[in-house]
Design goal:
With 80 residues, the chain is an all-alpha fold. Helices cover 68% and strands 0% of the residues.
């Protein structure tokens, strides 16, 4: 962005807004998909390794969402 200072103006804001929305959908959607997988595995006829792995996936997705929020990877500001 700083190699071309024209990108630090309001004209570049739609690109940043798209990246912010995409990041939010990716992190929250990943957690929701992991929770859906957890429900599908636990209501089906799966063995214990699959059930354990579904719990691990939900934990990992939650940690990724927590990291994204903590390090401000999910944000709505365009301060530069």
């Amino acid at each position: 962005m700083f190699s071309d200072l024209n990108k630090t103006t309001a004209a570049f804001d739609p690109v940043l807004r798209f990246a912010q929305v995409f990041g939010f959908v990716a992190f929250v959607g990943g957690l929701l998909l992991a929770l859906w997988n957890l429900k599908a595995v636990w209501t089906g006829q799966r063995r214990w390794p699959a059930k354990l792995w579904s719990i691990v996936l939900v934990f990992c997705a939650f940690v990724m969402l927590w990291i994204a929020v903590t390090f401000h990877l999910i944000g709505w500001g365009v301060n530069y």
